[in-house]
Protein 1
Amino acid sequence: MEPLDHNEELQQHAPRLHALGKVDPFKVPEGYFEHLPHRITERASAGTGTGRTFTSRERAGSFRPAKALWALPALAVVAAAVWWLARPPVQLHQPAEVPVLSETEFEAYAPFANLDDLDLSSAEWDSIHVHLTEEEALAYIDQEEIDLHELLDYMQLQ
Amino acid sequence: MAGPQHMNTLDDGELLALFRKEESRHYAFNQIVRLHQRRLYAFIRRMVTDPAETEDILQDVFLKAWTGLENFRGEARLDTWLFRVAHNESISHLRRLKRRSLFNERRLARQLTVTLASEEHFSGDAVQQKLQRAVMNLPPKQRAVFTMKYFDGMKYSEMSRVTGTSEGALKASFHIAVKKIEQELTASDQTIARPKHQTSA
């Protein structure tokens, strides 16, 4: 225990420290030491399904091969997801090569060939016609800042 | 603070033999905790000061002991081995605390002294507070050396097994720690003794 050397050293180099009594000033919660052995043993044995238990820090920071076995299915799912996301992009709508149709072929194409079958005559075309007076038309042209030259060219085309 | 309590006459070998048997494992471990809890608690408490952190570390020490005892070959004494675990856990805790708080050791020590001011956790007088404050100003490894030697009365040879440091280095570390603490105690004595009108001059 080297008590003499230790005391001598303190006396020689630290008289104030040597004069202090070695008391334990830290308070411990009542009953702490009475309950701790049972609590620790209970906790330790609770984690011994495989004869081992782990502290919180061990759990957070170390790799356990036995525990990793349980993670294999999850790992497989994650790997599949990664593969799915990383695979080369599949073009679902490949640009089709459209053959150039002859006029006959174009006319023979059913939807267009039967345009007459559509009852276009029943459309209420009048409903989209706008009848404006001269004043209204001029006001409209003014409002929309329409170039009169362009308007005249358009009317000539009609 | 004292060593093993006198409630158990089983030695290390007998306890380990009981621990290795499934039917007596709980009993043996319970006895091991009872034997060493107070000494380990006192050491950890002096290292980290905070009571909640002390309890967490002590629990971790014993949980590690539970797993490690299966492979314990008895080359060291059981109390030395447990002390080694407690020492390492305390130093790791202080390192983590320092990293997390981004405080330097001196600021961290000042923060810890606040805990000492709490009457709920500390019963010492003003002199004891001064001593604890001085101890906490030591760097963690030196604090461990001082605590083991001064408070626990451990031999340098055992301290060497606990810390994995040579006895010579431990003696030097303790000597420096003692001088630092004495210096702080002297400085605080002078501050208190100096009359107020002189300090302001």
Protein 2
Amino acid sequence: MRRRGYLVGAVCLALCAVMLLPLLASVLASLKPTAEAAASPPTYLPGSLSLDSYQRLWEYQQGLPVYLFNSLGTAVLTILFTLLLTVPAAYGLARFPVPAKELLFVVLLLALIVPYQALLTPMFLMFAKLGLTNSLIGLAVVHTAIQLPFSLYVLRNSFAAVPRELEEAAIMDGASSVQSLRRVFLPATVPAVVTVALFAFIMSWNEFLGALVMMSKSSKFTLPVVLAAARTETSLGGTDWGMLQAGITISIIPCVGVYLLLQRYYVSGLMSGAVK
Amino acid sequence: MVKHWRPAVAALATIALVGACSSDPEPTEEQAVQPATTSCASSGELTMWERSGGNKQMVDLLVEAWNTKNPDCKVALTYIPHTEMVGKIAQGIASGEVPDLMGMDLIYAPQFEKAQQLVDLTERIKSWPELATASKGHMTVATYEDKLYGVPLYADVSALFYNKDLFTKAGLDPEKPPTSLDELRSYADKITALGGDVKGYYLPGNCAGCNIFTVGPLMWASGAKIEATAEGDEPLTGDGVKQVLQFARDMVKAGNVHEGDRAENGETFHLQFGTGKVGMMGTGNFNITLARQQNPNMKFGIGLLPGVSPNSSASFIGGDLVVVPRGSERVADAVNFMKFLLSDEVQVEVYAKALNLTTRTDMVDNKYFQAEPLVQDVAKALDVGRTPYTLTFFEQINSPQGPWLQMLQKAYYTDESLDTIIADAKKAMKTVASQG
């Protein structure tokens, strides 16, 4: 029995090593001095530690803080817009006698089949007329649109899974439908709401193409766009590896942080959407 | 040289023509009459786009110099990821969201000129005396149907870099780079014979742009022509094509290049010479500073890329042009910025001082270059260099799936008949050119 325990442990450790090695390599490479980061063939471990790469990235164009702010601002707005739209919509579709609601739900999900890249051109032209390009709000709207079908799917299913007795009890106590959403449904579906928020955050934080198309001022770029520009070292496509790794390391931190913080909800959130 | 652009953004380019026909106004007559100066005529920020890449440092310095001189009319510079630049410009022009001026890869200028997406500057700049000595390669692609659309922003020229330390070790004269393909081959053999990790030569196996930059000139110097300029034009003519392909195939077979070169897609091309393990390599002027940073103790020299016959040479003149996109609201000031770039003072005190090539050939003789023989050597490439002129450069040459790279890979790494390989590439290039 004990031997089996060791075996499982060893397998887990090996798996962790496989998963974590690229991350570790990336972090280590970001700490190499400039010349060493560019060495060919590359070295595995840094000969000496240096923050050169971080400094170059920190000072690129408008400076890294501006880009972090843009990325973070867009991500937070995306979460906000997504929840504001999908919570009432999912509540309505799950709990109210909407005519042809199954059909409506399917139509809303249809957007999942259309790759969003195909929608960017018309969206961009429309946004240019509305003055929403070069604005965090505009980009957050694009990101929200990308995220809507999935979020609606998760939330509607978890609202539908809340026992009818709970809702009836709330009505007996005189709660209006908005009150029962706030007092009964939302507390019962926290994991699903967190899941939706997390997915929205990670998508918005990493999204490249939409940000590239919508933004054309360096003061409005988000982190992925800046990284694509900053890493280029020659006109033949040469890459500044040290700076690229520094950028990757910095862009991983919030994702890992948020994930670790909300991991418990996240996992049970996935389940809550899945079982219904 | 953009390696590739993403299909999704490229799709945006298709809307450009439609948009360009309907939206932006032509520059007004009133703007057209002001004579150009080297400072700003109006006030307010000028917006400028430039592709990200090797000349960031140079462009930053140029913009800084302008901003110091014109504090009321600063240039606000945005670097666009270089693989996305073409799509981004097309998208900007279609929607009217364009910068006041921009730097663009010179190689793509003709297709934007043809599509009338750039402002015709002929009347404003044609009488400038500076243009007579401006880099010829740049000016060729800045011209379309006798109209002028831009001036050079910076020059990337290719040349033959060679490692003097390895030359000495191999018993070669470190002051004499090879002047023909035969010499290049025999020197490479001697350097490779030193053994260890050292190889005599370098061939980027998976990078179309690197090859037109460094192998293309070997063909030009041997009297060949590469791309089809337009429909009906014959590409890959002259014996030089086959001779250079044979030369490269033999180099690979003789073990004169590293095994890993085959996978080189451009991302580490600029780092190869600085390793000190390559005897000779075609690369660009950007490599001077990089190699020094990488390997401060290495001694190296620069010669011209040779052809078959002794003392023949050629170079690829790449780099960027400054142009004005349709819809720009500050054409006059964009032109003033161009005048500023070409002025004697900027050529010497900004370009030359930072040890970058001047974009005017008559400015090469300056105090900064005199103190730096390597830059003087690389500057010679400006005289023998050229820039391909075609509306389908990407499809014919630069595309990772294009006929140029396919031809080279078959020549370098297979035993297929060179005549067949060339004939296939010819056919593919002609088809592409007829569709452009």
